[in-house]
Structure formats: structure tokens, C-alpha cells
Amino acid sequence: MAASATDADAGAGLRSEFLQVLLSRRRDLLVPLTVEQGSPVKDPMYQNPPSTMEANPMESCPSKEVENLREKLVEENFYLITELGEQGRVPVLLLKLDDPVPRRKPAIVFLHSSYKCKEWLRPLLEAYASKGYVCVAIDSRYHGERASNETTYIDALKSAWRNGDTMPFVFDTVWDLVKLGDYLGEREDVDPCRVGITGESLGGMHAWFAAFVDTRYSVVVPIIGVQGFRWAIDNNMWLARVNSIRPLFEEARIDLGKSELDTEVVERVWEKIAPGLDSQFDAPYSLPLLAPRPLLLLNGAEDPRCPISGLGEAISKTAKAYEESGCAEKFMFIAEPGVGHKITIDMVKAASEWFDRFLHA
């Protein structure tokens, strides 16, 4: 059964509503999209130094055997100017194979997790580039080149709570990804109909919401990033997520005169820094709107930040949306047994196979 016109209208309406939320904090900051040249980052900024173990799954990413691969890679470093102000300067790293015969290729946008940066993703970019993809990574807001010290991200979250003028948790970076979509659509080496997006943890949330609001992202693979925010509040399962950015919630607790963190604090913070995150834009309402675009959700079955028990409604509604669109095979949810909040070799492999299947490099 094909999706109804009513469903399509509802989807367009919710996307429009979300876009208005994004615009609400930047109406005086809008500028034409421009590009500035950059240079390779010699000393990437990590606000929480990663371990070697965290990098291992990315190093396992399937690739194509290319003799002297790194010599054949073309690297571009540049900045997209998406709005006025320091955070409107988006650092971009792009890798692709040098192609003697110019042609439009599929592209994939890769998004890092909290406290890391685009350079962290280089093993994935190189592996996918070997298979013919144009590979793109950005620093999310208040990360990488957009950070000045090891507390920049947390400081930005606290400022958003105090002042309500920015949305550094997920939404502001989604605006950058919409503008990145504009840019990629104009590149002569990118097929604008074949642009995928993926990310890990915070990057998985960025991928989820960017694909929700911007249908140009045609294949989507959020990794350990999708959760039910309202379910977590209603079922008192919010602590693991809160602990990942706890200084923000502690500041809110103090401001609200609370002796300890509770559900009200969590609700008030989300509404202030990410309006609608735990209501109209939550997973049960936004995920189904990705249909009929290929969507692979990868989670750990024991992930306390993204508990799979809180995804039942979202998965059910999303599966139904794909069935009604006549493309049930384009949606898959995998919860890896025994895995908490971490990316694994199997997740990296599954994501690679999904993109190869649906983007056809």
C-alpha cells in the first residue's frame, strides 16, 4: 500500500515545523553560503582524549584494495560559512580518489561523537574513498576546530541553558548539515541524488535529524544515536544520557532550586536547548518520515543511553511507514547483543554493506 497524500502532508508539516525551530535562533545571522579555503589540521582538538580501543572498529572498515591508496587520495580542507559568528564557520574535511575521468559519484557525510572531531573519522573516510565514494566529515558545533579548549562544548551547553539563544545539543549542527547539503548539491563530482549520512552517538543523532528535515540525504545509518527521549523521561531512564553531559544538568538543577536531579530538570533542559526533542520531533514521529529512503539503525542491545526498550513505538511506526511505502526491505533495525554504548566492528561492517547496497558506488 502506498503512503497516502495525508501522510506526506503531515511529514512536510513536521519538517517545516522543525526547520522553523532551527531558524528561530538564527534569523539575524543568515548569510549566503560561501566557502573559504582551509588547511590540514596538525593537532586535532579532543575534549576527552579517545582510547585506541575506540578506534579499532573504524580501522576494520571494509575497503577496496588500491595500490598506494594514500598517494591517490585527494584531500580538501575548507570552511562553509553557514551563518554569522564564529560557530557559523564549519570546518570540512573531504577525501576522494583522484579520478582521471571526472564523474559524479555518491557521497557520504560522516559525523563524529561527543568531544571528538572530524579527523577522528579519517579511517572511515579513507576506507569508503577507496570504494569510490566522496567522503565528507565536519566538526560539529563547539568541537574540533570550533573549540578552543577542553570545556568548549560543555560551556556552550551551559550557556544555552542560561541564555536560550543557541541549540548546541544536536539542532545547531543539523542546520550546518542542511547547508552542507546545499553545497554538496552544487559540486560537479557529487551525484546529488546519492548522498548518504551516518554518525556515531551524538553524530548518529545529527544524522537522524538531518535526514528527517532534509530529504536530500538519501541513505541514512545512525549508529548508537537513536533513542526515545520522551520514553526515557516517562520511564525514569534518562540518567545515562544525562551523565554524558552532566555539568549542564547540574547547573540547571541548581538554577531550579533542586537538591538532586529529577525528571523536571531533564524536561526543562531539553525544552530550553532542543525544543521538541522529547515531544513532536522525538523518534516515534520523526523516524517514520525517513521512508522510503533506506534507513539502517544500529544500536547496542544493552546501551543505557539509547535503551532499546524505549524504541519499540518508534521501530513499529517506522516499519509500518516503510511497509506502506512498498519498500519494507529498505528499513532495518539491529540491536547487537551484549553491547552497550559503543560502536563495534559488526556495526562498521553493516553500515558499509548498507551504503554499498543502496548508494551503488
From TrEMBL:
Q: Which domain of life is it from?
A: Eukaryota
- Report domain AB hydrolase-1 positions: 108-341
**Record-linked Pfam families:** Abhydrolase_6
Q: Where is this region: Disordered?
A: 40-59
SUPFAM superfamilies the UniProt entry points to: alpha/beta-Hydrolases
What is this protein called in UniProt?
Answer: AB hydrolase-1 domain-containing protein
